[in-house]
Amino acid sequence: MKDEYGPGLWVAYECTAPADRWRIAERAYSGTPLDVFDHAADVIVERLTGWHRWEAEFVWRAALGAWPEVDGDLLGRGVDVSLLPPARATNTVYAWLRGQLSQDDKAWKKFQKDMRHEPRRVVLREAEKPMPADDQAELQRLIASQ
Fold first, then answer.
1. Cβ contact 39:8 at 8 Å
2. Strand, coil or helix: what is 54?
3. What is the DSSP string of 58-90?
4. pLDDT tens-place string over residues 25-74
């Protein structure tokens, strides 16, 4: 199993109410393709945090890499991230990271670029969607004018 496709199953499982997790396990054992779980995980995380899953993951990985500093600084300001709902916690950690990186414009731009980089699975899923008729007509006009 490719690393890029496996985590969605675990995110979907962990973000599902414990009483309903058997449904996720049943689907996994019945052969539901892993990309279905990735899509479900993308939707779940976006609903919980207001962030695309890959962006929220990037923010949290960066924060966890400096967790003693993040947690200590925020606790010193009276904010216990562990008590916040997922969306507020993610926003708070993002703001902390932004504060740390804002001194270095190049580092901040790299952070933003890396955070917004869509995973291959998302790019492929978007590419499979049909093009809206207006866009398709415009593309045909452009091609015809060449």
1. yes
2. helix
3. HHHHHHHTTHHHHHHHHHHTT--GGGS-HHHHH
4. 898 888 888 888 888 899 999 999 999 999 999 999 999 999 999 999 99
